[in-house]
Write a structure and sequence with these properties.
Strand content: 15-25%
Largest sheet: 4 strands, antiparallel
Helix content: 25-40%
Mean pLDDT: 77
Low-confidence stretches: none
Number of strands: 8
Number of helices: 5
Order of helices and strands: EEHHEEHHEHEEE
Number of domains: 3
Strand order of the largest sheet: 5-6-7-8
Length: 238
Amino acid sequence: MPLIACPECGKEMSQVAQSCPNCGKQNANVMQRKRYVRFFWLGTGIFLFPIIFSWFTLRKGYSITARVISISWLVLFYLVFFNTKNVHTPKEMPDNQHVQLDSSGYKYFVEQPKATELAKAQLKESPAYKDYSADANTALLIEVKERLKAPSGADFPWDDLPKEVTTKGVKLSDMSPYLHKVIKEARKLKKEDNVRVYQKNSYVDAENSFGAKIRQRYLGTFIIYTEFGYTKSFIEFY
């Protein structure tokens, strides 16, 4: 017969022994098996009791009333038993679901954005994290047209959007004069994170003062101070 070590004293004991012969610690495996057997017979008795009760009332000596009561109890018991098994007990719903009722009164689940997704969406819409490339492009095109001789006939590349650039770690001496002024003030106030800079190195095909269409290259810079909504754009032709 296989032996196991007692979890209490460490001495060897039989695997089927109810308790350790040395210290008296009960064998948890044996007690667990006994519990399973006890619950099995209890459940079987509860399940079969209505059948036995109804079967007894069908014998001679029992009135019709007793038989009606016993059979009604049998039917009611199994109706409740099987309906209870089919009832769906919902677990705790995830954060991204909630219950709604339609016009007929039926419940259904509706997917909702998770808290992290909502936070990310709100973060993207906040001024400090919003993508301003489209705004920068519009402002720079207006700035370029104001510098042209014949802006109505100017042709721009349609897919050339400004790119955001970082100013962190960049020396002020390496910046254009206006950008130098803005970043210097932002660093002084410790608010450089609130300054977003977009640049566009592109070209425009437009007529010059002699009516000839030529290609002019330019560097456009768009600055937005997100805390106040202040914007500035400037163009450098080269």
